[in-house]
Amino acid sequence: GGFSGPIQTMDLREQRERAAALDHGYLFIQGPPGTGKTWTGARIVVDLIRRGQRVGVAATSHKAIHNLLDQIGEAAREEGVRIRGLKKSSAGSAETEYTADWVTNLADTDKLVTAAPRAQLVAGTAWLFAHGDFDGGALVDTLVIDEAGQVALADALAMGTAARNLILLGDPSQLAQVSQGTHPEGVGASVLEHLLGDHLTVPADMGIFLDRTRRMHPDVCRFVSEIVYDNRLDGLPSLAAQKTAFGTGLRFLPVDHVGNVAAAPEEAERVAREIRAMLGGAWTNRDGETRPLTETDFMVVAPYNMQVRLLRRTLQAAGLGNVPVGTVDKFQGREAPVVFYSMATSSAEDVPRTLDFLFSRNRLNVAVSRAMCLACIVASPRLLESRARTIEQMRLINALCRFAEMAGEQAIDHVEVASAQ
Fold first, then answer.
1. Across residues 293-313, what is the average pLDDT?
2. Which helix (H) or strand (E) holds 272?
3. Helices (H), 10-167
4. Which DSSP state fits 201?
5. End of a domain among 210, 240, 265?
6. pLDDT class of 353 with cuts at 50, 70, 90
7. Higher pLDDT, 412 or 237
8. 410, 373 in Cβ contact below 8 A?
9. Of 23, 69, 11, 407, whose CA–CA distance to 220 is shortest?
10. Total domains present in the chain
11. Which residues of 385-412 are buried (b: 16+ CB within 10 A; e: fewer)?
């Protein structure tokens, strides 16, 4: 509660007003890839503190909390706001401690709860806020949960007891960091999935959709926006200046292979060949600065660890050992001018897990949206002929087919390399 009328706005001042107006209510901010979700969340936190609130900061991992604290520290410095913060750490675990002169790390929960009234910010994982020793939201005024797309509904409700208001930052169309344990259907769904129901994007009267990416060239963004975000995602105009000597947008690179389950040497060889041919070609960033592509300007992702290991070995053998390679999940949050997504499985019959895993729209979204300029899918063409057993599978397979269609089966143009050097 606390705000009437449409909630959607891209104006930071208005976003801060929406957050400050909460009165025993929640605000959902959906941030697609590269839209500055953490940046926005940090500036809302600093504003709430300026207004005299004590704010809680939570996420599923210490790394995500530290990332948000980095941004909060930066925003506070920019705006001249002094913050005294507390962070719940674990005894003898350095990676749970946040090092900054404005944050005190405490491993003892009782001590932290006692010290909280003298702090403006309290940070910790779900465990701290679901602790239950605070009556009626006594620990913080507003709790901000980052990466809320990874927080189960039950956990969000338990954490919410520590606060009067809740701000949920996240994007249910990206991947959960880890899937540990198994929950009955529905219980494992994140708090954001519950709030969205059948919507892909948060409706204007339900929350804020950050609709401008600072990463993807319009030719890449168009696909991601259509498949995942109801055509609501756009890029900053300057992103159209990003280009490579090999063009921009989407490329579908078919590689024939048979019987591969979770690793395809044929695809690994193709990726190595493509990168080798593109190295040294021109890359122009959004500021119009041009330089040759180096190994670290590429990123190679795959759905399976087996294919990741094979890609690493193949690239190493080709003298391309500095090219970043990982599962799609691992590279969430990162970006590169040119991205290769190697799908590894030969056909729907060979899929090692379920069709829903390989064809996951969230996985496709995260893989493609790492690309600032050029997104290449390397896959067996037989995947495009997969037969769906359910309506949902049909939608997932259609997304890959749509990628191939938009890519227009154009091969990467190596002809222009000579002129770029």
1. 98
2. helix 265-278
3. 12-20, 37-50, 62-79, 109-115, 126-129, 153-160
4. S
5. 210
6. confident
7. 237
8. no
9. 407
10. 2
11. ebeeeeeebeebbebbeebbebbeeeeb
Three-state DSSP state, 287: coil
d(CA 69, CA 62): 10
Residue count of the chain? 421
pLDDT band per the 50, 70, 90 thresholds, residue 53? very high
Angle (CA) 291 293 295, round 5°: 140
Residues 155 and 272 in one domain: no
Domain of 356? Answer: 218-420
Q: Quick count: other Cβ atoms within 10 Å of Cβ 263? A: 20
Q: Report the phi/psi class of residue 13: left, alpha or beta, with left for phi > 0 and alpha for psi in -120 to 50.
A: alpha
**CB-based contacts of 132: which residues, under 8 Å, 6+ apart?**
158, 161
Residues 76 and 170 both lie in one domain? yes
The answer to whether residue 3 is domain-embedded is no
User: Is a pLDDT exceeding 80 seen at residue 409?
Assistant: no
Tell me the pLDDT tens digit for each residue of 83-125.
Answer: 999 999 999 999 999 999 999 999 999 999 999 999 999 999 9
164 shares a domain with 295: no
Please list the residues that pair with 290 across neighbouring strands.
284
Q: What is the CATH number of the domain that holds 104?
A: 3.40.50.300
C-alpha span between 112 and 409 (Å, rounded): 58
Distant-in-sequence, close-in-space partners of 78: CB < 8 Å, separation ≥ 6: none
Residue-level pLDDT at 391: 92
How does strand 282-284 pair with strand 243-244? Answer: antiparallel
Residue 360 DSSP label: -
Q: Which residues contact 339 (CB under 8 A, 6 or more apart)?
A: 298, 299, 300, 301, 367, 368, 370, 371, 374, 375, 376
Q: What is the pLDDT of residue 412?
A: 60
pLDDT in tens, 251-290: 999 999 999 999 999 999 999 999 999 999 999 999 999 9
Regarding pTM above 0.70, the answer is yes
Nearest to 295 by CA among 311, 317, 280: 280
Q: What is the mean pLDDT of the chain?
A: 92
